[in-house]
């Protein structure tokens, strides 16, 4: 999950109270409650296996577990190599009696190193579970696996096609799996993504928009010379870089949720040499897809204005994870999720987050109405990417109930 606690809730929208609160579906709730203990066992088994991005040995162990569980639930399983960091994207499919195509998505890699699972195995204390990746996103994997178990218990097959996608490289931008995620999502009616929710916010939430991430670069070529003997013969790349950073720092647009922050700077070699080379790197976040083109175009135009003559300046933006922009399909799913959560006597918020997720790859800019996408259907947790990462055990039942009821409801709609 490409976010941190400081970025987790860029915007949190408290919507109007629901007009009426329905009672929970007792049959579904009973099936959900029966999964509490098995869910914890699954979560323990996942957490106690290392699966850091690029740890091919650890990832292969988790992959084997996932394939066995999907096959036991009657899904046909295939894999696609994710070559950049290693590991395979695991894809499970099963046909039902309905028409709707529904995809369940989450990653199985973590940010933690080899050996961390042995050092900090799964533990429970004071209502929370701890361990590497316990919420981000092994809690989401367990949510999908036990949603499948509940559907079997209820003998529900009202969907057209059920597709499960587990990818091994989300924590490094999904660079080896993103094309496969986009390809599969393109044919879906609904994509439900199981990144965790946010305990730190003091409310429970699902995500209806995520920011995209781009990587800014700024390079300056000058001319070296002796700083004491002939400084006038030089062209100071560090001075020009500083000038460019100052004039490019306002490329963001707060009204649109666009930001550009310069975060890394390099320049110079020795105190007595006018530097002939300098560079900076930056982080761009944005909700509106067209902001990439605007920032790149305006940035290059601004960079044409130099303070130090005879220097060469290059401004560029490398595309990273795309945004999940605000869209009617996601908002409608969010409202439906709120109504379902209310059946449990709980309030659900709809969040826009500053960190990107794989939901951005599932979104289809050329066909924004399909699939409809909802993010953060995993377990409630917090302190992601830290040694204190946790999952809230009391959230297992309500989140499983939400996922089950939402899946069943969207399955029954007419296919598009």
Features:
Aminopeptidase, disordered N terminus, six-stranded mixed β-sheet, alpha/beta, Alpha-Beta Plaits, 416 residues
How is this structure best described in words?
The chain is built from eleven helices and 20 strands. With 416 residues, the protein is an alpha/beta fold. The chain has two domains: 11-211 and 323-411, Zn peptidases (Aminopeptidase); 212-319, Alpha-Beta Plaits (2-Layer Sandwich). The protein has a six-stranded mixed β-sheet, with helices on both faces. Strands 5-6-20-19-9 form a five-stranded mixed β-sheet, with no helix packed on it. A hairpin with a 6-residue loop joins strand 2 (76-81) and strand 3 (88-95). The longest helix has 17 residues, at 56-72. The two termini are 30 Å apart.
List the helices and strands and how they pair.
Layout: E1 11-13, H1 26-33, H2 36-47, H3 56-72, E2 76-81, E3 88-95, E4 101-107, H4 116-119, E5 123-125, E6 128-130, H5 138-154, E7 161-167, H6 178-185, E8 190-193, E9 197-198, E10 204-210, E11 212-221, E12 225-226, H7 237-248, E13 259-267, E14 273-274, E15 277-286, H8 291-302, E16 312-319, H9 328-342, E17 348-353, H10 359-362, E18 372-374, E19 380-382, E20 390-392, H11 396-411
Parallel strand pairs: 4-7, 4-8, 8-18, 9-19, 10-17
Antiparallel strand pairs: 1-17, 2-3, 3-7, 5-6, 6-20, 11-15, 11-16, 12-14, 13-15, 19-20
Helix pairs in contact: 1-5, 1-11, 2-5, 5-11, 9-11
């Amino acid at each position: 999950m490409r976010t941190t606690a400081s970025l987790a809730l860029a915007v949190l929208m408290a919507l109007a109270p629901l007009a009426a609160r329905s009672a929970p579906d007792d049959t579904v709730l009973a099936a959900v409650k029966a999964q509490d203990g098995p869910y914890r066992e699954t979560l323990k088994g996942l957490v106690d296996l290392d699966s850091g991005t690029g740890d091919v040995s650890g990832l292969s162990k988790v992959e084997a577990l996932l394939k066995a569980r999907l096959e036991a639930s009657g899904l046909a399983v295939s894999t696609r190599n994710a070559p950049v960091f290693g590991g395979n994207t695991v894809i499970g499919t099963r046909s039902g009696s309905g028409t709707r195509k529904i995809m369940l998505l989450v990653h199985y890699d973590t940010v933690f190193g080899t050996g961390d699972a042995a050092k900090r195995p799964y533990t429970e204390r004071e209502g929370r579970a701890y361990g590497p990746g316990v919420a981000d996103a092994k809690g989401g994997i367990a949510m999908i696996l036990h949603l499948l178990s509940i559907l079997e218990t209820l003998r529900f097959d009202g969907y057209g096609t059920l597709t499960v996608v587990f990818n091994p490289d989300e924590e490094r931008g999904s660079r080896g799996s993103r094309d496969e995620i986009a390809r599969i999502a393109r044919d879906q009616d609904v994509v439900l993504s199981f990144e965790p929710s946010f305990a730190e916010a003091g409310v429970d939430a699902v995500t209806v928009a995520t920011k995209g991430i781009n990587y800014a670069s700024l390079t300056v070529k000058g001319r070296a010379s002796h700083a004491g003997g002939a400084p006038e013969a030089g062209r100071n790349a560090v001075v020009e870089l500083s000038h460019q950073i100052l004039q490019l720092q306002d490329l963001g647009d707060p009204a649109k949720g666009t930001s550009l922050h310069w975060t890394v700077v390099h320049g110079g070699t020795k105190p007595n040499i006018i530097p002939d080379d300098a560079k900076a790197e930056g982080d761009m976040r944005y909700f509106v897809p067209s902001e990439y083109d605007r920032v790149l175009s305006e940035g290059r135009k601004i960079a044409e204005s130099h303070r130090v003559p005879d220097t060469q300046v290059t401004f560029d933006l490398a595309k990273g994870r795309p945004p999940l922009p605000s869209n009617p399909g996601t908002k409608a799913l969010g409202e439906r999720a709120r109504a379902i959560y209310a059946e449990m006597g709980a309030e659900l918020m709809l969040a826009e987050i500053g960190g990107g997720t794989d939901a951005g790859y599932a979104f289809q800019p050329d066909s924004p109405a399909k699939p409809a996408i909802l993010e953060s259907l995993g377990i409630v947790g917090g302190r992601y990417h830290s040694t204190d990462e946790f999952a809230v055990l009391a959230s297992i039942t309500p989140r499983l109930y939400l996922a089950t009821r939402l899946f069943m409801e969207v399955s029954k709609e007419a296919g598009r």
